[in-house]
Amino acid sequence: MASETINGLVVEVKIYGTVTGSNGAQQSIDITKKFTFSDGTGTNQLGQVYYQASRSLNATNEDLDVIGSASYTDFKGATLDSTQLGLIYLENLDSDTGDKFTLKQPAANGVPGIFAAAGDGIDIGPGGVLLWVSPVDKATVTAGTGDLLNVTAADNSTYKLLLGMDNT
Known about the structure:
168 residues, mainly beta, 50% strand, four-stranded antiparallel β-sheet
């Protein structure tokens, strides 16, 4: 059982501005999406958070063992023990050209339901952010058989990571 309580965790995205074409025509963009999570296991609920403000890779890759690993604990030191992943925030803290990360589902024991298939992934370039939010149909994680996410760095790189999971 998670050893923390989620109280009003908010994820908010806002994209706005005006685009002007060569002919002078303008298009206004105003998109706002807000997710508010409370404690629990249902829709718009999370029960455990893993957050690391700075994590380094040395031109290598690592498997993030989402549950059951002593390497990944909540802020109180409790091992992550949830069964569903509903939020991923990955920020590339580097600014040098070529210092990209790849987040992917490993070929074996990967978390299903985020990428279409094992081996699929997405690159996050220098200064970039990946935000994946699934407040209803979360990705099911199963200890030992379906709880890995892989992060690969082409260079010595640093990233910020937040995972939000359901209570078990």
